[in-house]
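Working notes for the structural subgroup meeting. M.R. asked for a predicted model of this chain before we commit to crystallization trials. I am recording the input and output together here so anyone reviewing the notebook later can reproduce the run.

Input as submitted:
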Amino acid sequence: MSAAARALLLLVALRFVVHALYVPAYEGPDEPFHLAHAERVVDPAIVASIASHPCSADLQKAIGCAPFGSAPAEWNVLRFGETSRAAKPIANYEYHQPPGYYVLPSLVSIDDPIAKLLAMRLYSVLLVLIALFFLRAVLPDRAFCAAMVVLLIPGAAESLARCANDSAVFLWAAIVMWALHRRAKTPWLALLAALGPLCKLSAIPIVALLVLWTFCNRPRVHALLVAIASLAVLPLQWVRGFQWGGTVELNAARAPFHETLAQSASGLARSGYTFVKTAFWLGEWSFFRAPMWLLILVAIFIVAVAISLRRKTMSLPHIGALVVAIAATLWWFVSHRLFWGDWGGVGGWYAWAWFPWLAVSSHELFTVRRGRALFVAGALLVIVANVAWFVAAHGVYAR
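Returned structure, recorded in token form:
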């Protein structure tokens, strides 16, 4: 590993750890409910802890905690034992998630909810850092350095340095890329295909990659075995009381749908824009927004990168997995609208779980002209974005 790669890897690790420590308690999207996944309900201790800390508007409606601005909230995840009121348990809407990410945390007994939250944030960071060593074994030095710069985008830490199961899919995806690079034997590929959806169903596009790669490189029956192994999540989730692997939108009644085709097209476009924008900058559960000038700079940079791309090869497994990812995401937009009654509710943090695959597929499918200039421009843009993010966050959490 070159000195530049080591420095960037260290910078990513530092950025993620700082993020896990800086962000106020329960401010990562859905964190209380991932924290309480071991139980069907969010138990009284967690509810009381949430109620004792400033929180986002969504949690204010559910719990009644004070808004940000009522007390300083930066770094408060480092202050344990700040629970001052009794509370009742509430239902856990993340209980449908497969159990893979939560197995190890459930074995560690930590009574204080804030201490457990911090431990699970750092656990997520650890999973990401382990994954990066697998990714380094697959990517050459320049591609790895570029990937590290991309991981310094604010949305990466927001998505992966929180108490949530996306980091487990991130690690699994990196191991899949390493296994394919090493041309692992079919039983190992089948095992990986089984494990991914047990972390989160967003693993499905990479499962498609595994099946397609096996189809192209092994006897057809091997691809069938890998595909069958990937269905292991279904009976497990059925035993837990969920059909279709636990997908929320397929396990409950849907909201009324009365829209014109034009309204649906507009809503679908808004969902796509929201997904991309929040992958770059989420604004945590308060959803504080990126400045418009920064979004314009990012759009210009993306156009410059797109213009510089040159196709290197055609890979059926990667192209097929990309088609599955796009189709599944579009279906998700629509099903989310049918279930919740509004467009634009799918956050871009789901895409960061795919990052190891996207990094490897980009390297295998494309070359980039003017790569050095784009690398420097991207690095400067990432610096500016992080300064802007921390300034915006400070304005929300410290006022």
